Amino acid sequence: MNGAAKDKAGAFAYQGVYRYLLRLIDGIEPGARIKLPSLRVLGRTLDVSVSTVQAAYGLLEAEGRIEPVAKSGYYARGSAVFGPALASPDLLQRVLAGACQSNMEVFSRAAPAPRADALKTVLRFEVELARRYPAGLGSTVQPCGELELRHALAARYTRCLEHHWCADDVYIGSDLLSVLHMTWTAMQLQGAVVVVLVPCAWRILRTLQQAGARVVELALDAQGRVPMQRLEEVLVGRQVRLMVLGASFHAPHGTAIDDADKRAIASLLERHGVWVAEDDTEGDLCFEAALRFRELVSPQRLLIFGSLQHLLGAEAPFAYLLSRHWQGRLQQYCLQRATVAPPWRQKVLARFISGGYDDHLSPQRESLRHQVVAFAAFLRKHLDERLQLAKTEGGACIWARSRYPVDMRNVFEDLRRQRLLIAPGDVFSLQGHCHQHLRLNGCGHSMTQWERCAKALALALEAHAV
């Protein structure tokens, strides 16, 4: 029989080759372009005829999955990663998987792109460290994080004798999710009442949910104000254990809470003995100097978590926790995960925090302010009849609300099919407070990309009005 012969399972042989090649293509790194095996080589590998392989390649070419190059062979690009997640019923999984596709224009990210000058500074510190330790750092593992990095972070957050931190109060994790899991595990939040302001970062919401906390969501109003009366009612009526608050502004909404409201919130929480977890992952990206909650809350009731991703991106995925309490539980958690944070990069980051961080922070804020203001002006010009934008006072994102009822999930899916990714509001609330909202990040995109996104978004909002 020839290449159209059936294999032992009863299917045509070329279909087996086709399935094999699909799995091979799906394993390609997003954005990468690789050369596929030649017809003859693949035929020998799979023990089928050249014509059978040719039939499978022909089918993939017709589907647009591969491309032939004259006198060279067949090539494929990585794009179809996380296939099951892209079809998941979980909206968040579809958003995250979509962001991994190489041919997607991503407007959903939370953080700005890393700064090239900051990355160069980190590289310089790496070279200096390599000269200082030509034989490497040895094999000793510090489970809570490299001591040098913990000292640097403690010094950065120390303000005075009453509000000081030391290295023993600092814990380093491989990423923010790991640190949040560690924090809620140490606090033993199963069944405890935790108050958050929504919109709220999905990592915080999901990890609190997984920890078994009873999450109470307080929705910010259109001006970004905290519903103070509702907060007081919750504190009086519920035995609240913890409240999570942004350090200088509230992400992803982007609005800075009024200083008077911050003082009132801090006073209420102190009166009711509520712990405060300050989210400082983007605190330094506030465009104007702002009062921090850690300046108003006693360290005895305060936790701080943060990261350096806003400056360095994936080159510094580590996150950290500052806490004076639950030392035994936190150390136990770190001991069980002692190998996840490379010590070399931690030492480099310690030097960056002590001798380069602030030099890059000011230009980062100014660059972000310029990009965000320009993108907001563009959106108002093209989408003002459809979207109401919140005032952005920090970070890279713009929070928007539809001016009329729409099915925002269908808007998201519509744009995703056009290779445009936005963050629908439902991922920022567990209780449905953000159905009509979305988050957009235009930083790093061209004017042409802005125009394509705005045009597609306008059509989708109109098509899915309810």
From TrEMBL:
InterPro entries: Aminotransferase_I/II_large, HTH_trans_reg/aminotransferase, PyrdxlP-dep_Trfase, PyrdxlP-dep_Trfase_major, PyrdxlP-dep_Trfase_small, WH-like_DNA-bd_sf, WH_DNA-bd_sf
SUPFAM superfamilies: PLP-dependent transferases (SSF53383), Winged helix' DNA-binding domain (SSF46785)
Keywords: Aminotransferase, Transferase
Listed GO MF terms: transaminase activity
Domain Aminotransferase class I/classII large: from-to ranges: 145-457
Name by which UniProt lists this protein: PLP-dependent aminotransferase family protein
Organism field: Pseudomonas coleopterorum
